[in-house]
From TrEMBL:
SMART domains per UniProt: LamG
InterPro entries reported in the protein's UniProt record: ConA-like_dom_sf, Laminin_G, Neurexin-related_CASP
Gene field: Cntnap2_0
Residues of the Laminin G domain: 1-164
UniProt xrefs under PROSITE patterns: LAM_G_DOMAIN
Annotated protein name in UniProt: CNTP2 protein
Length: 245
């Protein structure tokens, strides 16, 4: 396929921060890859480079953040030659590709949800997508519908289920005044706590606990966007330990 225009759209949701959403490449060095990296969306595109190195076509665009929140996100990629519109959840960014070529020449297959192992270092280090996609549309072709009706030719559809499994975790929402109090464990000399959290606020108290017998307390908080741990021990010379990350 050698195209001057492309329109690719889909919706996804995942709790993973890394994963290839779709990938296509050609023998001329052209490629297009959309993937999640550190819960951000990255589009890598190359309409062609020359062997002399004077034309370098690789172009990378990053958008969004915290996309591993298991909520639906919509993507639309519109390309006309070197002009690209990348829309994530109705927020559009416009950019132009590097190089001098206008056509995307993909003579290998396009894969959704991952990329085949090609022996190249780039394919070995990338994770396949883990999550749900719907409404995959590639240049007017409804890929999800064709895959469900087994109308993709040729195709290699492996272990797909046409449903979306919800996560088993139960989140707790806190407003500015709410908190959750649980009983401590007496007569234990180990304090251990683990949790996942997400917030837009740069400051806030996450965990607080007094030690028994007035030995002090431990506090975990967010301060200016950084997580800090404060341990106060009453009977030590160095009675306060602060750890920030």
């Amino acid at each position: 396929m050698k195209t001057l225009k492309d329109v690719i759209s889909l919706k996804f949701k995942t709790s993973e921060s890394e994963g290839v959403i779709f990938h296509g490449e050609g023998q001329q060095g052209d490629y297009i890859t959309l993937e999640l990296k550190k819960a951000k969306l990255v589009l890598n595109l190359n309409l062609g480079s020359n062997q002399l190195g004077s034309i370098y076509g690789h172009t990378s665009m990053m958008t969004g953040s915290l996309l591993d929140d298991h909520h639906w996100h919509s993507i639309v990629i519109e390309r006309h030659g070197r002009s690209i519109n990348l829309t994530l959840d109705r927020h559009m960014q416009h950019f132009r590709t590097n190089g001098e070529f206008d056509y995307l020449d993909l003579d290998y297959e396009i894969t959704f949800g991952g990329m085949p192992f090609s022996g190249k270092p780039s394919s070995n280090s990338r994770k396949n997508f883990k999550g749900c996609m719907e409404s995959i549309n590639y240049n007017g072709n409804n890929i999800t519908d064709l895959a469900k009706r087994k109308k993709l030719e040729p195709s290699n559809v492996g272990n797909l289920s046409f449903s979306c499994v919800e996560p088993h975790t139960v989140p707790v929402f806190f407003n500015a005044t709410s908190y959750l109090e649980v009983p401590g464990r007496p007569s234990q000399d180990v304090f251990s706590v683990s949790f996942l959290f997400r917030t837009w606020n740069p400051d806030g108290l996450l965990v607080f606990s007094n030690f028994a017998d007035d030995l002090g307390n431990v506090e975990v908080d967010i301060n200016e966007g950084k997580v800090s741990v404060h341990i106060n021990v009453t009977h030590m010379k160095k009675n306060r330990i602060d750890i920030s990350s």
